[in-house]
C-alpha cells in the first residue's frame, strides 16, 4: 500500500509563496501524480498533474503561478505556489497512481491519497 504524506502548508498573505511536498513510501504505479484541493463547501478539484513522461498540466486558475515537479529518486512530489490569492485557500491533497492516461485531473481515477495540508491565504 502506497502511503503519501503532504507537508508545507500554512498561512500566508496574498502575493506570498508556499512550497508543498508529498513524500511517497514507494514509487506508485500508474500514469500520473497530482495535486488537488478542496475548499469548504466545494468539490475536490485538480490543481496540477504530472505524467510519468514529465508532462505537466495545470488548472487555468493556477497557470503561471504554480509549478509541479518531482524528485523521482526520493519519491517526492512538489507544488511550488507563487502569487497566492485568497481563492487558493483550501486543503491540498497529493494523489498518486492515476490509472487512466490523459485523465489525470479526474479524482476518481487515483488509487492513493494523502491526508491533506491546509493552505490559507489572507487578503
General description of the model:
There is one protein chain. Strands 2, 4, 5, 6, 9, 10 and 11 form a seven-stranded mixed beta sheet that branches. The mean pLDDT is 94. The chain is 0% helix and 50% strand. Strand 5 (45-51) and strand 6 form a beta hairpin. 32% of the residues are buried. The protein has 123 residues and is mostly beta strands.
Brief descriptors of the model:
single chain; 123 residues; mainly beta; seven-stranded mixed β-sheet; 11 strands
Short description:
By secondary structure, the protein is mostly beta strands. The chain has strands at about 5, 10-15, 20-25, 30-40, 45-50, 55-60, 65-70, 75-80, 90-100, 110-115, 115-120. Strands 2, 4, 5, 6, 9, 10 and 11 form a seven-stranded mixed beta sheet that branches. The protein has a four-stranded antiparallel beta sheet with strand order 1-3-8-7, with no helix packed on it.
Largest sheet: 7 strands, mixed
Average pLDDT figure: 94
Can you tell me the residue ranges where pLDDT is under 50 for at least 5 consecutive residues? Answer: none
- Helix-strand sequence: EEEEEEEEEEE
Sheet-strand content, in percent, reads over 45%
**In DSSP terms, counting alpha (H) and pi (I) runs of 4 or more, how many helices?**
0
Helix residue percentage: under 10%
> What gyration radius follows from the Cα positions, in whole Å?
13 Å
The beta-strand count equals 11
Amino acid at each position: 500500500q502506497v502511503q503519501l504524506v503532504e507537508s508545507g502548508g500554512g498561512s500566508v498573505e496574498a502575493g506570498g509563496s508556499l512550497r508543498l511536498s508529498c513524500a511517497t513510501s514507494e514509487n506508485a504505479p500508474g500514469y500520473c501524480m497530482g495535486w488537488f484541493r478542496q475548499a469548504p463547501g466545494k468539490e475536490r478539484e485538480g490543481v496540477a498533474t504530472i505524467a510519468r513522461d514529465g508532462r505537466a498540466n495545470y488548472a487555468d486558475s493556477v497557470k503561471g503561478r504554480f509549478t509541479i515537479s518531482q524528485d523521482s529518486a526520493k519519491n517526492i512530489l512538489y507544488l511550488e505556489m507563487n502569487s497566492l490569492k485568497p481563492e487558493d485557500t483550501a486543503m491540498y491533497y497529493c494523489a498518486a497512481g492515476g490509472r487512466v492516461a490523459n485523465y489525470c485531473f479526474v479524482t476518481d481515477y487515483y488509487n492513493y491519497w494523502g491526508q491533506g495540508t491546509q493552505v490559507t491565504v489572507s487578503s
